Amino acid sequence: MGLDGTGRKKTPCCCCADVDLKRNDGFSGFGWPGPKRSLRKKAGLKSYDENLMDDLIDKHLGGSMKKKNRTTQDIEKETETEAMIALSVGFPIDALLEEEIQAGVVSELDGKEQNDYIVVRNHILARWRDNVHSWLSKGQIKETVSSEYAHLISSAYDFLLYNGYINFGVSPSCMSQIPEEATEGSVIIVGAGLAGLAAARQLLSFGFKVVVLEGRNRPGGRVYTQKMGQKGNYAAVDLGGSVITGIHANPLGVLARQLSIPLHKVRDRCPLYKPDGEVIDKEIDSMIEIIFNKLLDKVTQLRQIMGGFANDISLGSVLETLRQLYAVVRSTEERQLFDWHLANLEYANAGCLTNLSAAYWDQDDPYEMGGDHCFLAGGNWRLIKALCEGVPIFYGKTVHTIKYGNDGVEVIAGDQVFQADMVLCTVPLGVLKKRAIRFEPELPVRKLAAIDRLGFGYHTVSGGPVLVALVAGEAAQAFEYTDPSTFLHRVLNILRGIYTPKGINVPNPIQTICTRWGSDPLSYGSYSHVRVRSSGSDYDILAESVAGRLFFAGEATNRQYPASMHGAFLSGLREASCILGATRSHQSNSRKLMQKNIGPNNDVLIDLFKRPDLAFGKFSFIFNPLTVDPKAMGIMRISVGNSSSENSSEKEIENSSQNSPDLPLQLYTMLSREQAHQAQLIAGEDESRLSFLLKDLGLKLMGPSSMGSIGNSLAATIASARRGRGRYRVSSKYDFSSMH
């Protein structure tokens, strides 16, 4: 996690060298860290109303959207507001995501069609964010967008739906979309944390048969809410992930809105005390805070100068070198206060500064979600409980072996074997580091290397209904093996040093809990960080699927939002989309083997190419609209002939023979979306693109009859998908009745 320059880390507060204390009205847990830069503010409002987003959207969209006689100014204002909402969700205002480009959402890039698509896309996003309680249909969008953009409505809607940007969550309307019978295939999900539960619900809505295997006797993984107290006076305490870091566009905020759970803003006021209980002088506090932030700025400047040489250097060593170079933080009091900032930084990254990469420790800075940091009234268990509804979960199933191959997957837990088409592994990075699960065949070398390079904290929290103590860095590692009573007495001594002189009695606690995530065999730590010699690319490598059968999700697979609850949730939605695409690819391949060796009917091709998905120069392309996989195959047509014949209309081609000398010769080949977009980017005339396709990619041009059963199957698949364009079903290969 990186710095936003606007706020001191909002979780730890009072501290000594290795123990940070905070009073925050029922909040606790390791928090899935937020911003790390220090700049304390005056306390703001205690409660944050996420429904204010509803009011904002309704003000700009909800009322005027229904008016038929809108002025140009009204429309421009709505378009601007919708663009800002899309931006908050992670979409660029005037460009496409790379995933959208790969999915071929428009036939031509950087033109009017793309601009129109972006407006439609932003409108759909804003419409759903306006009412996350209801399922948004294409029909509803068509009520507010002109029919001339019907193809863009379908393109944008399908992309947003299948990639988890709309119609997700725990509202009854989402549950109502789950088909009674699964017909898409079967998936085993290992782990019932946020990533696994998000993926499970999404896959169920796609029509998959899903089962979740969880090693614990509860769901949630590293999100765990504990009741504490006595005699009917209880409070909910989050002992794991707790803070929603940045409420704007956060999917967990959407879940809270769907469940009508109030969100409470984490207070900004954070007075600090010396180990003996004396309050820190405000001037010294402010001075050290400024010094700390300036040293971090120097680290940024230094790594820009050093380039790749910074990869082998730790953040801790650079900070210490700079501190000595500028001769700052000299006195004991200054050093203790500076150590607080270092410990706070270690807490936010779940790792020692001596291990954090100076080059990439804040690589996810550009993606931080805006808005206040909040926690849920009653704890995050309320989200977990809602996500579990309707999801088949087997508890107490600790997976130790995952086998995958062309025929499907086998997942072994104890003496039970579960079989399915695909498996999604959502276990924490610490479990992968420990090699607690055996993969057969072994994972690719590059994935194993990424697992080893990324860091994974050992972070420990003890909490109560009002007070929480946070331990970070090397102190957290030592805490794993120390009697909790030792630290409890130390904490109480500090508290009494603070409050006794004020005439306030600090009693012994009613109940204490100490969690040890670092030694927990189902987590082996708290959350990931970029270690020395690692980079953000390792998150991407960890997210890569293997052999189209084995998939990975979890916060450590999310480069943009690692070490966060929403990052874990979003990774689950991402992998559900990937699994859907891979399933469609497997289904297409299976059908190809069953077809006779005949090419597609020429009339079918003529009909399909009346509406190409991509066209430039002499080239036209058609693809399956139900998959966004860049590797998914499509058909290309090129018109060959003299300049006059090449301008013949589709109607003339349809009504004439393919061999007519007065019409262009229509030749075809099969290629992937990715290859089509590569050809589009080739500079020069059509001859240059054709040379790239034939020489660089090794493709062959042919007539319809020469395309064989593969071409026939592909054309039939595209035609069928265009007719259905909603839910394209085939039967699954496995079911879970084969469990033994």
Automatic annotation (TrEMBL):
InterPro entries: Amino_oxidase (IPR002937), FAD/NAD-bd_sf (IPR036188), Flavin_monoamine_oxidase (IPR050281), Homeodomain-like_sf (IPR009057), SWIRM (IPR007526), WH-like_DNA-bd_sf (IPR036388). Pfam families: Amino_oxidase (PF01593), SWIRM (PF04433). The keyword Signal does not apply. It comes from the Eukaryota. One of its GO terms (molecular function) is oxidoreductase activity. Gene3D superfamilies: 3.90.660.10, FAD/NAD(P)-binding domain (3.50.50.60), Winged helix-like DNA-binding domain superfamily/Winged helix DNA-binding domain (1.10.10.10). Residues 76-177 form the SWIRM domain. Residues 642-661 are annotated as: Disordered. One of its GO terms (biological process) is chromatin organization. Keywords: Chromatin regulator, Methyltransferase, Oxidoreductase, Transferase. PANTHER family: FLAVIN MONOAMINE OXIDASE, LYSINE-SPECIFIC HISTONE DEMETHYLASE 1 HOMOLOG 2. Belongs to the flavin monoamine oxidase family. This is Lysine-specific histone demethylase 1-like 2. The lineage of its organism: Eukaryota, Viridiplantae, Streptophyta, Embryophyta, Tracheophyta. The gene is LDL2_0.
